[in-house]
Amino acid sequence: MKIAISGKGGTGKSTITGLLAHYFNNDGYKVLAVDADPDANLASALGIPSEVASSLTPISQQRRLIEERTGAKPRQFGQMFKLNPVVDDLPDELCFDYQGIKLIIMGGVRKGGSGCACPENVLLRSLLSEIILHRQEVVLVDMEAGIEHLGRGTAQAVDKMLIVVEPGWRSIATAQAIIKLSKEIGIRSWGIIGNKIQNNHQKEWLKQQFQSDLWLGMISYRELIQEADLKQKPLIELMDSVLKTEIDQLYQKLHKEITKLEKT
Ligand SMILES: Nc1ncnc2c1ncn2[C@@H]1O[C@H](COP(=O)(O)OP(=O)(O)O)[C@@H](O)[C@H]1O
Ligand SMILES: [Mg+2]
After folding, report:
1. Environment class of 62 (CB within 10 Å of its CB; exposed 0-12, middle 13-18, buried 19+)
2. Which domains does the chain show, CATH number per domain?
3. pLDDT tens digits, the chain, 264 residues: what are they?
4. Which atom of ligand 1 is nearest the CA belonging to 39?
5. How far is the CA of 145 from the centre of ligand 2 (A)?
6. Between the CA atoms of 154, 137, 241 and 190, what dihedral angle is there, to the nearest 10 degrees?
7. Which ligand gives the minimal distance to the CA of 40?
8. What is the pTM of this model?
């Protein structure tokens, strides 16, 4: 199962990716969680203590590795380098194991669209492609709203793209742009998750923004989610019964839809 999670910054992508990683893990799956958002915070969302998280070096900052694999120095243009670096050993080599969940932090790459060929971009794109095309785990990729790094061949292997929205036009507009772009690169299945919902009015408003078959679930605005963030505690351990019911439903629906996709 290959799942990408996208949406506007701050909507709750990492929070939800972190929870889903624990859910799949607790359900007996091997999980590989990938932080592909330059604004990386999946480690903390998984519940990894900050002193440990801050010691994990994103791949985009591992200069020696980038040079060794691509044959060129990062952050420099005008060099010759390998466009297909060997990366198949890297997921195991570079991942950090947390309570049985493997985590890989990609880090930020220089912007410049998919045509930007600098060594660090090439390495990250190759690695993401390797993970989505060839790994056997349940892969959860926490992505920024810009999903260009996926590339066509990789996108086609994504089983489902989850898009997180919150009540408000801005995240809706971002979600619509993501759907359009992801369709163009070959994604075929989406799941919208409404997050930070404060009342029924917001819920009804949000519902109307997307066709019903795109909806995966809704999560209420909860102070305990922020508390977990503040206290740097794993949210999975602080959930109350209300939140647990919402996430249980979300997970069950996602699991069912993906298993169905796999059979067809
Ligand atoms: N349902 C929610 N209720 C309250 N706060 C939330 C909720 N979901 C996320 N948050 C908070 O919103 C902030 C952004 O969430 P985060 O998962 O980091 O977003 P993203 O990864 O999309 O940028 C965090 O402080 C998080 O604790
Ligand atoms: Mg995030």
Report:
1. middle
2. 2-263 (3.40.50.300)
3. 999 999 999 999 999 999 999 999 999 999 999 999 988 899 999 999 989 999 999 999 999 999 999 988 776 666 777 788 999 999 999 999 999 999 999 998 766 544 566 888 889 999 999 999 999 999 999 998 888 778 888 999 999 999 999 999 999 999 999 999 999 999 999 999 999 999 999 999 999 999 999 999 999 999 999 999 888 889 999 999 999 999 999 999 999 999 988 777
4. 23
5. 10
6. 20
7. 2
8. 0.95
